[in-house]
Amino acid sequence: MTEIIEGRNAVLEAFRSGKSVDKLFILDGCQDGPVRTIAREARKHDTIVKFVPKERLDSMSETGAHQGVIAQVAAYDYSTVEDILKKAEEKGEPPFIILLDNIEDPHNLGAIIRTANLAGAHGVIIPKHRAVGLTATVAKTSAGALNYTPVAKVANLGQTIDELKEKGIWFVCADMDGEVMYRQNLTGPIGLVIGNEGNGVSRLVKEKCDFTTAIPMQGDIDSLNASVAAGVLAFEIVRQRMSK
Fold first, then answer.
1. What is residue 167's predicted lDDT score, i.e. its pLDDT?
2. Where do the RNA 2-O ribose methyltransferase substrate binding domain residues begin and end (predicted)?
């Protein structure tokens, strides 16, 4: 379950104490002084703000005393992209980063973070919008991997890819129409981009990638769960790195 903080004073203190607030929900139409102060703090911290009806807040509330504001707080602190690159540098390894586009299921995110840790990836990057954050469910599903694997949240995934390309990292996108992974060179500094199983990687992000890769499949359905796809491709990268 997502960790939430309710009530005006509690939410304001969460921002001012530096907690990682993923989303702020405010009662639609509520514009008094304290609420404006909270909204201003949210904007300062680049938090997503949603104005919702009272029924939505009531259904989210655990105390029944939300006072028109509820904050969804990350169960773990986010790292930065620089933290991820530093981890690779400290290990003396070419960067291996997993980037996730539109992963909204916390169980998928937790499983991917667990896979990232076991595959030796130096970190995971998630977008700020249209994606699940580091909720308590994500932390639990990661089976402790969140303690060791940095997760960075960025405003624009495509822009982050461009910035990392300038640092010598190239990007491969998981896509059913790509070249089979066994026929591709997946060594060197690499970013593996995974989308959700429904829509895959968004067009704008896919266009930023250097090429696409596909997992060979023999069954009757045409897509894998996102966390399974991430696992298969991550360990193909591991295999190629070890055999180099």
1. 96
2. 4-79
Read off the pTM: 0.85
**Using CA atoms, how far apart are residues 193 and 97, in angstroms rounded to an integer?**
9
Question: What letter does residue 94 receive in the DSSP assignment?
Answer: -
Alpha helices of the chain — where are they, by DSSP H? 8-16, 33-44, 54-60, 81-91, 106-118, 136-141, 157-165, 203-208, 226-243
Query: Which of the four pLDDT bands, split at 50, 70 and 90, describes residue 1?
Result: very low
User: What value does the mean pLDDT of the chain take?
Assistant: 91
Residue 181 — pLDDT band, cuts 50, 70, 90? very high
The residue type at 115: T
Check residues 46 and 105 and name the one with the higher pLDDT: 105
Name the DSSP letter for residue 31: -
φ, ψ at 147 (rounded to 5°)? -75, -15
Q: What is the DSSP-derived secondary structure letter of residue 145?
A: G
Q: Strand 211-214 to strand 170-180: parallel, antiparallel, or no bridges (unpaired)?
A: parallel
Distance separating alpha carbons of residues 19 and 45, to the nearest angstrom: 10
Could you give the C-alpha distances from 72 to 20, 60, 132, in angstroms and in order? 9, 10, 11
Going by C-alpha positions, the residue among 67, 74, 27, 30 that lies closest to residue 50 is 27
CA within 13 Å, CB half, 190? 23
Contact 68, 30 (CB under 8 A): yes
pLDDT-derived band at 150 (thresholds 50, 70, 90) equals very high
Rounded to 5 degrees, φ, ψ at 242 are -75, -30
Given a cut of 80, is residue 178 above it in pLDDT?
A: yes
